[in-house]
Amino acid sequence: MTTHEPGNKSVPVQITEDEAAVYDRQIRLWGLEAQQRMRNATILVVRLRGTATEAIKNIVLAGIGKLVVLDGDDVTAEDLGAGFFFRDEDVGKNRAEAAKGRIESLNPLVTVETVPSFAALERDALDGTLQSVDLVCVTDWTRDDLIRVNEACRRLGKPLYAGGSFGLLGYIFCDLLDHEYIAPDRAATKDAPKNVRATAAYAPLSVALQHRWSALTRRQTKELNPAVVFSILAVWEYQALHRGTLPDGADKADELEAIANKLLSAADVNKQVITAIPGDLIRTLASTAPHEFSPVCAVVGGMLAQDILKALAAREAPIANFFTFDGNTGGGTVCRMSMPDP
After folding, report:
1. Which of 60, 174, 223, 261 is a good FRET partner for 88, with 20 to 30 A between their CA atoms?
2. Where are the alpha helices (DSSP H) in the chain?
């Protein structure tokens, strides 16, 4: 079987016998065709903080073709906590370049490329950066920049994942355009199960954020844990009002709480479930939002990687479309924001 450098779409990479042995368990789980799609995929990951670190570990071990890591920031002492690709001697070095060798050591079959500057995401360069990849994953980014990247992904037909953490809270958003996948046939019997092709129509982030909760029952609303959802959305709005900075102390709690409750009211959330965001949740968030907690990054990054691989394999329904995680309780929920029912 012939191989070539991942990223050249003219001739797909064929899995060799050696690679088939390495990925044997996955091939038995997903099937050869799905593993082939992963092997030919080029994924761009933006910002290498804790959530991205965990996600990268999993998608590289799974056997994607090429990983492009883009980060213009340098390693800080705080990065050493959740960023297990970094060592003490890396402090002050560019994050992407410092991590490259350790990422490559996870799986020598995966090509790793680094872009040590955010200039590649500026308006004039953005389309060119995205054009050569198959899937985009942006982590720990501001809402307005996510919307801008999402719009470019839509223009170019590229699926987008976004993820990150604010202290003990974490999130994943995805816009997979019109995503086709194989799903179990609900009409089939247990004795004769079969699969069918399904399609999910995703919404861009700008549309998802306009979602109204009025159609949900009291039980559905409660199950989605709106306090966590709107606390995360409030941090995004806070960043938009403060030039991208995060709340970093208890003195920011009142403003953050006012923002969260305004968003909650505007979305028409069932008042029988919640009338205001709990003050203790907001106070904790205001103090911890800039900081990373390894267990939260591990959960969110693990979920992010799993869903990216699921989307590439097209074997099951991915997240639809906003996942939130509450490290205070260890629980996570998926909210379907501005997406049509399946």
Report:
1. 60
2. 17-22, 24-30, 32-39, 50-62, 79-82, 95-106, 123-131, 143-156, 205-208, 218-223, 226-241, 253-266, 279-288, 294-313
